[in-house]
Task: structure prediction
Amino acid sequence: MKMNPSIKTHNLKCNIHFGYLASKIKMISQQERALKVYEFSTNSGILFENVLKIGLNSYIMSVENLADIFQFTHFRKFLEEYQEHRAVEDSSFTKTEICSLLGLPKTRSYFADVLRGKRVSPRMVAKFIEVFNLNRKEAKYFEALVRLDQAKTEAARTEAMEDLLRIHPQPQVLLNSDAYEYYAKWYHSALFAILDVMDVTDNLSPVAHRIFPRVTVGKLADSLALLERLGLARKNDAGFWKPTKDSISSGPYNNDELVRQYQMQCFELSKQALLFPSKNPHVMSTMVFSLSHEAYQKLEEELQAFKAKARRIVGEDTQKPDGVYHMNLHLFSNLDPEGK
Result:
């Protein structure tokens, strides 16, 4: 059966406007929907009843089910879920077709490669924004997500996170969305570092045999699944799990109580290392002293400077890592202020 030429023309016009409509429809109320459909039909030169016939109203309803970028803290996960959701309504929106829409008709695997961890250039970020029909605010958020994922320094990562908090319509949603799970158990961060030292496959028995204190294979498997879900670990071409970032800091965005609980676990690790010494290198030192307030402030500044230097040493280490180390710094008073 041949398609009526006029119907074909209407469908083509709808396809042209679908992207624009998709970027707007998520922000309108139920009451405004009928008016938007009418405006769309008028601007497209299509009779209102014909718009309904070609299923635009059902399309509008389906748009609302597309992945909401503001629910994501990892841009690759957003791209993956958006493509899956949209392909349900538009079967032509495949990973291969996205490559063509991005201006890469001869590269069928580019989008899949991005989902697997390939870096995205600024030019391609702009292309993704266009293809995925992001409005201005969503585009800014997407750009910040990419910068957060691809940041090479802690300063760049902090700047990107601050932009996310500024742009997000409900910034409190971002606070601790991933951190609660990551910092709930000390071995999540330990495994993150271990992946840089050992060639880890899906068989986590070698890690369970070496990690201190001991962690079961089951718990390590759950931890690895968490790291993958948070975008912190991926398999490389050789089939080994590797970290996607050089380091992680709790930063200024995490709940104080959450960080406190994590630090308590770390202090317990120090206790275990003291009670069960091994042949592994370790340094344990304790000092108790009296000090003026001015001298205390200087000492705290020196400790902060040392932490910055330690991060630099770690970041500038060009040799292949062969160990995972834990460092805790404690400085607290044994004397409450007068009158307390």
Remarks:
- The radius of gyration is 26 Å.
- The mean pLDDT is 77.
